[in-house]
């Protein structure tokens, strides 16, 4: 019986070593790594609500769906040379549309509300 117990201990040691090796090599995180700041921000979102919020130093941008708040904040900091105070994100759900009898849907995505310090502005052309 001692012989079988010894094999089992060796097997558990081998499994533990494999788990440690995988843990060391697996450094991927859930957040994607974008090549450039232009990959994070798609475009400014120009709507009636978004233009009204500019008076309160809140700017709205369409962003990549997998972009995190920290990545968005860093992209705005590099592109526009401003200091975002905070970033809120929201997903845009697709809406059903019917045009000339053809049913489709509008685009979905993710938008980011970027709050700036007083006195700072972003020129959106």
Task: Please specify the SSE layout and strand pairing.
Elements: H1 2-25, E1 41-44, H2 48-53, E2 58-63, H3 69-80, E3 84-92, E4 96-99, E5 102-105, E6 109-116
Number of helical runs?
A: 3
CATH class: Alpha Beta
How much strand content do the residues show? 25-35%
| CATH homology superfamily | RRM (RNA recognition motif) domain
Count of structural domains: 1
Structure description:
The chain has 125 residues and is α+β, with helices and mostly antiparallel strands. The protein has one domain: RRM (RNA recognition motif) domain (Alpha-Beta Plaits, 2-Layer Sandwich). The protein is built from 3 helices and 6 strands; from the N terminus they run H-E-H-E-H-E-E-E-E. Strand 4 (96-99) and strand 5 (102-105) form a beta hairpin. It is flat, with a radius of gyration of 24 Å.
């Amino acid at each position: 019986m001692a012989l079988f117990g010894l094999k089992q201990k060796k097997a558990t040691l081998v499994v533990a070593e494999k788990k440690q090796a995988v843990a060391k090599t697996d450094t991927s995180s859930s957040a994607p790594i974008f090549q450039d700041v232009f990959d994070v921000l798609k475009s400014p979102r120009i709507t009636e609500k978004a233009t009204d919020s500019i008076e309160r130093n809140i700017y709205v941008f369409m962003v990549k769906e997998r972009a995190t708040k920290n990545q968005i904040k860093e992209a705005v900091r590099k592109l526009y040379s401003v200091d975002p105070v905070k970033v809120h994100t929201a997903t845009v759900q697709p809406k059903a549309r019917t045009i000339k009898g053809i049913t489709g849907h509008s685009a979905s995505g993710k938008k980011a509300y970027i709050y700036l310090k007083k006195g700072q502005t972003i020129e959106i052309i």
